[in-house]
Amino acid sequence: MAKIVVVEDEKSICDVVVQMLRYAGHTVQAFEDARPALEAVDFSQTDLVVTDLEMPTSGEELIQTLRSRGIQTPVLVMSGHMDEERKRHLASLGAQETIDKPFGLPQFLARVKALIH
């Protein structure tokens, strides 16, 4: 299956996301901040980045840095604070997909599957 990097600073949410992805058969690396996640994506064959927005180094900064380095790994953004304008902005930065928190397992895994295939 896919190698996925998860970036989420709320441990309880991160743990649930990691469990869902591992349940689906994926290999997952989890980080609480974007900076160490960038190194993981830089130096490994990552199939998908799943990131929160509101962190010390924001999800937006993560997307911008990935794209500025020429890394085109698909990005799925999760947040409880996204309106349509912000979703368009994230797409313009290079995010392929967004999902609103809270989300269910089927909805989340369907978006992941669409991005890695």
UniProtKB/TrEMBL annotation:
InterPro entries (UniProt xref): Bact_response_regulator (IPR050595), CheY-like_superfamily (IPR011006), Sig_transdc_resp-reg_receiver (IPR001789)
SUPFAM superfamilies given in the database record: CheY-like
Annotated organism of origin: Handelsmanbacteria sp. (strain RIFCSPLOWO2_12_FULL_64_10)
Keyword GTP-binding: no
Domain Response regulatory: 3-116
Residues with the 4-aspartylphosphate modification: 52
Organism placement in taxonomy: Bacteria, Candidatus Handelsmaniibacteriota
Name of the protein in its database record: Response regulatory domain-containing protein
Gene Ontology BP annotations: phosphorelay signal transduction system
Keywords: Phosphoprotein
